[in-house]
Amino acid sequence: VQLQASGGGLVQAGGSLRLSCACSGLPCSRYSMGWFRQTPGKEREFVARVNWSDGNTRYSDSVKGRFTISRDNAKNTVFLQMNSLKPEDTAAYYCAADNHPIGGSFRYQYNHWGQGTQVTVSS
């Protein structure tokens, strides 16, 4: 099982980035996928998720309206389009896979994790 996150980088406030998470070693289309983020000294927090069953999405209040999660099952890849970035979005971003048809919003609900990709937003 491997989740490979990429796409992080340094961007100015107001800019955009698109994160990707390539999934392998799983029947990835049958996993709900989520994005979480973490800054040093803080708990890893939920950002967004997309169900495998119906494609329904959910976002944290802090990113709603600015971030969009999507998936391409043919490519076993999940994306996180991040627009209107703010300095407080600076964090390591992690993708995760949940083998339930409806994905969760809590870290413990996810079975598999990728390595983080760093996003830094300058003011």
Number of helices, counting only DSSP H or I runs of 4 residues or more = 0
Structural class: mainly beta
Instruction: Show unreliable segments.
Output: none
What is the CA-based Rg, rounded? 13 Å
Oligomerization status of the protein chains = single chain
Distance between the termini: 37 Å
* Largest sheet data: 7 strands, mixed
Element order: H for helix, E for strand: EEEEEEEEEEE
Strands, total number: 11
Overall pLDDT score: 95
Percent helix, as a range, is under 10%
In what range is the share of β-strand residues? Answer: over 45%
The dominant shape is globular
Brief sketch in words of this structure:
By secondary structure, this protein is mainly β. It has no helices and 11 strands. The radius of gyration is 13 Å and the shape is globular.
Overall description:
With 123 residues, the chain is mostly beta strands. It has strands at 2-6, 9-12, 17-24, 32-38, 45-50, 57-59, 67-72, 77-82, 91-98, 112-113, 117-122. It is built from no helices and eleven strands. The strands form two sheets. Strands 2, 4, 5, 6, 9, 10 and 11 form a seven-stranded mixed β-sheet that branches. The radius of gyration is 13 Å and the shape is globular.
